[in-house]
Design goal:
InterPro entries: Cro/C1-type_HTH, Lambda_DNA-bd_dom_sf, MLTR_LBD. This is Helix-turn-helix transcriptional regulator. It comes from Herbiconiux moechotypicola. By secondary structure, this protein is α+β, with helices and mostly antiparallel strands. It has two domains: 4-87, 434 Repressor (Amino-terminal Domain) (Orthogonal Bundle); 107-295, Beta-Lactamase. Helices cover 46% and strands 11% of the residues. The chain is built from twelve helices and six strands. It has helices spanning 4-14, 36-43, 47-54, 63-72, 77-87, 107-115, 135-140, 151-157, 164-183, 189-201, 203-209, 259-285; strands at residues 121-124, 130-133, 219-226, 230-240, 248-252, 299-300. It has a six-stranded antiparallel beta sheet. The two termini are 37 Å apart. The model is unreliable at 90-100 and 288-297 (pLDDT under 50).
Length: 301
């Protein structure tokens, strides 16, 4: 019976060529990637032992075996972390597991988000669901950073289907898919729901997911079609929220005078104007208005 561990091992060895690991090229090779025996030899274990791992029949390999397998499969630290977690299912590793119950964001973190009037910031859980976002983040990509939205779903389902933007979309979708595999708990019903939904609805995502890439969200640059401004490169950084396992703080930033900073200043002004208008409207009608749309929805790739 296929297992998540077996799927991961098979996918990773299938992506390696013999010459990638110092083995001679063989034109008669009939299987893609490395053979089980070759991975086992590179890791210094028996082929039978490796087969038991791939079939999910071995549950107590040592740390040394995990490190050796990671080296044989050319995994980085994130990949070895994921491999170890798949082997030792049910045992939290590095605090990345997502609780089953909905998470609440600490009041102090919410207050911090609101005080960052010129810095878009979002709190995500381990499945990359949005738990909270400040006004500037909501204005940056309307709809994507609303509470309850999912970062991966928003990117995949907002995908372009032709032209140069499709390549940018692919890179972002692959990045966030790898992040879900790293941060999320593969046994979490929400995790399973997200992956099943996207694989069923988008064949391109299904191909991305089957690559079994694993990468923690740390930092990078995203291309965002900002409403009424246009496409802008905006740097971002992830911080872990202290004492809130699995919660990630996504912060967008830009140096003074950079296009990103110009975008933030412009959006901050729009947010302030919208807030002032709402206060005036509330005073005139005596009824607090609902949230106003600042502009047409933007895109992110």
């Amino acid at each position: 019976m296929p297992t998540k561990l077996g799927d991961f091992l098979r996918a990773r060895r299938a992506r390696l060529r013999a010459e990638d690991v110092g083995l001679p090229f063989d034109a008669r090779r009939r299987v893609p990637g490395l053979r089980r025996s070759e991975v086992a030899a590179l890791a210094g274990i028996s082929t039978e032992y490796y087969l038991r791992l791939e079939q999910g029949r071995e549950h107590q390999p040592s740390d040394q075996v995990m490190i050796a397998l990671g080296r044989a499969l050319r995994l980085d630290d994130d990949g070895v972390h994921h491999l170890t977690r798949l082997v030792r299912r049910g045992t939290p590793v590095r605090g990345q597991q997502r609780p089953s119950a909905p998470q609440e964001v600490d009041d102090s973190v919410l207050a911090l988000l609101e005080q960052w009037e010129n810095t878009p910031a979002v709190v995500l859980d381990a499945c990359l669901d949005v738990l909270a976002a400040n006004a500037l983040a909501s204005a940056l990509v309307p709809g994507m950073f609303r509470q309850g939205a999912n970062l991966l779903v928003s990117v995949v389902e907002g995908a372009p289907h032709a032209g140069d933007l499709e390549s940018l979309w692919y890179d972002q979708a692959a990045l966030i898919a790898a992040a879900l595999r790293f941060h999320g708990n593969p046994d979490d019903p929400r995790y399973i729901e997200i992956v099943s939904r996207l694989c069923e609805r988008d064949a391109r995502f299904a191909v991305i997911w089957e690559l079994h890439d694993v990468k923690a969200l740390v930092s990078g640059v995203v291309h965002i079609d900002v409403p009424a401004i246009g496409w802008t490169e905006i740097p971002w950084r992830i911080l872990n929220v202290p004492r809130s396992p699995g919660q990630l703080l996504l912060v967008f930033w830009g140096d003074a005078g950079s296009p990103a900073r110009v975008v933030f200043d412009t959006l901050a002004l729009r947010v302030a104007i919208a807030r002032d208008d709402a206060v005036v409207e509330s005073g005139l009608t005596g009824v607090a208005p609902g949230a106003r749309d600042l502009d047409e929805a933007g895109s992110i790739v």
